[in-house]
Amino acid sequence: MEALIRTHSIDEAVAYVEAFLHGKNAMKLWVVGPGGCGKTFLARWAADQTRNGKRGAIHDNSDPDPDAPFWLAFSRQVPDDLLGGELVEIGVPEYERKLGVLREWAAARGLDIAPRAMDALLTLETDNLQFLRSIADRSAREGILTSPRIQEVDVLRTLGRLGMLRAPEQPTLPVEGMGH
Fold first, then answer.
1. pLDDT band, residue 69 (cuts 50/70/90)
2. pLDDT digits (tens, 9 = 90+) for 8-56
3. Looking at residues 61-73, what average pLDDT do you find?
4. What is the pTM of this model?
5. Least confident span in 31-45, 67-81, 96-110, 125-139
6. 163 — phi, psi (to 5°)?
7. What own/partner pairs with CB < 8 Å and gap ≥ 24 does 107-114 have?
8. What does pLDDT average to over the chain?
9. Are 25 and 14 in contact (CB under 8 A)?
């Protein structure tokens, strides 16, 4: 299993979940965040903790049993009824979390991401970590026959095939004889 990338926003959520799992805070806890922000990794981490003897009834959907004595639920949006639970929100992934996720993903597959390829991935306009990993995966398949290193050309080729390649901005040059 890939590691939980620990950044400030994830550490805050982990602190609440750990307190929940040890019975130190709310009996019911909602973890809410946008798609691809890391809720699934946090849910897997929490499930591993419950297997290690800590309490927990984990729901990775937004439909926990309101009559259960305690539960931990994960949802993309704040539910209309918190069912007596506390709320922890995970924000969109920051740069450090995206970088950590891509590094962890590559290491788990025995791959390396060249610096310019990493820059190309990190500048994509997405806050969805799953989508970011899928672009990296497609890019790896582009160059896998020649090297275990993802190159910038592999990422650009993948983005081009997906219709996501943006043309670089061209500098505006003054036109001769216009206004001067």
1. low
2. 778 888 888 888 777 766 577 778 888 888 887 787 777 777 766 555 5
3. 67
4. 0.68
5. 67-81
6. 70, 25
7. 108/2, 109/140, 110/148, 111/140, 111/148, 111/149, 111/150, 112/148, 112/149, 112/150, 113/149, 113/150, 114/149, 114/150, 114/151, 114/152
8. 79
9. no
**Hey, what are 120's tokens?**
């190309």
Q: Which residues, other chains included, contact 144 with Cβ-Cβ below 8 Å and sequence gap of 6+?
A: none
Q: Which of 52, 53, 55, 87 has the alpha carbon at shortest distance from 68?
A: 55
Cα–Cα dist 42/48, whole Å:
10
Token digits of residue 131 = 């989508």
CA 92 to CA 76: how far, in whole Å?
A: 11
CB-side neighbour CA atoms (13 Å) of 61:
3
Distance CA 72, CA 22 (A): 12
Inter-residue contact 36 to 127 (CB < 8 Å): yes
Strands 71-75 and 28-32: parallel
